[in-house]
Amino acid sequence: MKTAAFFDLDKTVIAKSSTLAFGRPFYRAGFVGKRTLMKFGFAQLFYVLFGADEDQLERARDQMLNLTSGWHRVEIEQLVEETLEEVADPLVYAEALLLIDEHKREGRDVYLVSASPIEIVRPVGRHIGVTNIIATKVKTDAAGFFLPELEVYAMGPGKADAIRDLAEREDIDLSESYAYSDSITDTPMMEVVGHPVAVNPEKELRKVAEEKEWPILEFEREVSLGTRLRQPVPMISGATVVAAILGAVGMALVKRRRG
């Protein structure tokens, strides 16, 4: 059987909310007005400072559906692709990039798993070398324009369900797979794999990780996508990052034996 590594996107691989980060390009392209742009800004600030609980994410989902209704799927993905480096400088955690590369070298399939729309996640994934995507999908009409309805909602339990379905289709051994996230809302996703890892965890997830003796990693070095595309990231080796994870796992096992 195959194994895989599942990475939450926002505040795990990248340092911002992927959806909110594109507020200004959407404004310049005429998709949103100035008032909506200000809401993007305040929401981004709140998200960075305090994270987002499930109720906030549900409200954000409904607002997103109302806002994007009538937008064209292809136009949105093209806009994200064209403005990605402008928005994402710096955006990506170097430690995440190295960890993704290390999982690939060890033969694991790597997936980005995000509640953000796939039209935003897919271009980000291409730029960091991850083409396997699990993300929210908004329904469209026959011409490709968004409707205010969801086809797939990859948030909370929805992520876990999508991973289980994928594992069944692709013959993935989840007990030997990894999952990385910063958010308590991703606990269902982390519990379906044998190796859950909390990354820059918010308060609630840190508490759960400590109780369950999951490894905890702190990603700090933000780099631009240009760095990723043009040259190796000037950072510690991927083996060192993995060694840190294995060390944390080892400490958890020692604590468990002592208990």
Provide the fold topology.
Layout (H helix, E strand, L loop, with lengths): L3 E5 L14 H6 L5 H17 L3 H15 L4 H15 L4 E2 H12 L3 E9 H10 L4 E9 L5 E7 L4 H14 L7 E4 L5 H5 L3 E5 L3 H10 L3 E2 L4 E2 L1 H6 L7 H21 L1
The H/E string reads EHHHHEHEHEEHEHEHEEHH
Unreliably modeled segments:
33-51, 229-241, 248-259
What proportion of the residues form beta strands (DSSP E)? 15-25%
Overall 3D form: globular
Q: Could you estimate the helical fraction of the residues in percent?
A: 40-55%
- Compute the CA-based radius of gyration: 18 Å
Q: So how many helices? A: 11
Most strands sheet:
7 strands, mixed
Instruction: Return the structural class.
Output: alpha/beta
Q: Kindly report how far apart the N and C termini lie.
A: 33 Å
Mean pLDDT: 75
